[in-house]
Design a protein that fits this description.
Blueprint (H helix, E strand, L loop, with lengths): L16 H6 L1 H35 L11 E11 L7 H7 L7 E3 L2 E12 L4 E12 L2 E3 L9 E13 L6 E16 L2 E3 L6 E3 L2 E17 L4 E13 L3 H9 L11 E13 L1
Antiparallel strand pairs: 1-3, 1-12, 2-5, 3-4, 4-6, 6-7, 7-10, 8-9, 10-11, 11-12
Length: 270
């Protein structure tokens, strides 16, 4: 039986078998890209399932007062990612290109979702799910085919809310969990010499400290005016980029990355 998520690749063997073997890197890259796309769908599906599960299990305990037992948040997220010592000059040197060919991108856009259960008016527990998308490597106008990055996080931890005001609810939280970074394959065009990269991924431990403010529109709806998080991961950039461009490159980069995440959106209260 073929494992789920793994595609079978058949390489015809004929008198021109040398050509088939030369195509192995392209075949490997295609299979990897398809696997990462399926993984992306599964991660989003898992996040939605967890949020629904937490909301449903909390429904029997709903109270009749103004303090919600269950909160579900969803909205836009922006992350300013740390580069960990990676610079355009480092890329030019490691990939043997002219100065100024490559640059580094640090701004990512995505989504953030949370499911929160409140034990009382002050203390609760929250599950946090997020996805970020961007281009960590930029290129001059003459270059194209740079790899893109997607990053998914699964976190959980305690949350403290200050509900002294009727309309405004500030909160702070401490979250712990996992973060998975996926770098797509790339084939650079317009460079001095050909450059290609394989798809690579790295799963790291994540610690998040932050908080925000909710504006209560009604009993069941709130607007999250803003949530700001210090987002720390143990992402090893040497491993991530070394797997993509080949061993022996990109040594001396950071093995821990510090990011800032901002989120805003709608909160449903039950």
């Amino acid at each position: 039986m073929q494992p789920y998520g793994v595609s079978k690749v058949l390489i015809p063997f004929n008198h021109n078998s040398d050509a088939a073997f030369r195509n192995l890197p392209a075949i490997r890259s295609g299979v990897r890209i398809r696997y990462l796309r399926m993984e992306k769908v599964e991660m989003i599906r898992c996040s939605a399932t967890m949020i629904i599960l937490i909301a449903v299990t909390g429904l029997p305990a709903l109270a009749q007062d103004s303090i919600p037992k269950v909160q579900v948040f969803g909205g836009y997220s922006f992350m300013h990612a740390g580069t960990g010592g990676l610079t355009g000059s480092t890329l030019d040197l490691e990939l043997r290109q002219n100065p100024g060919t490559f640059g580094v991108g640090s701004n990512f856009n995505g989504w953030n979702a949370q499911a929160q259960y409140n034990f009382d008016r002050w203390f609760g527990i929250v599950a946090d799910f997020g996805g970020q998308y961007g281009t960590p490597i930029t290129a001059s106008s003459a270059s194209s085919g740079v790899p893109t990055m997607s990053e998914y996080s699964f976190l959980a931890g305690p949350v403290i809310s200050y509900r002294a005001k009727e309309k405004i609810t500030p909160f702070v939280h401490a979250l712990f969990g996992w973060d998975r970074a996926n770098l797509s394959a790339g084939s650079f065009a317009g460079t001095v010499s050909p450059v290609s990269s394989f798809a690579s991924s790295y799963t790291s431990f994540a610690v998040v400290f932050g908080g925000g403010v909710d504006y209560n529109l009604s009993r069941h709806f709130s607007l999250r005016l803003g949530q700001l998080d210090y987002f720390h991961t143990t992402l090893d950039l040497n491993s991530l980029y070394g797997s993509a461009f080949g061993p022996g490159r990109f040594q001396g980069l950071a093995t821990h990355v510090n990011n800032l995440r901002f989120s805003t959106g709608i909160v449903l209260r039950f």
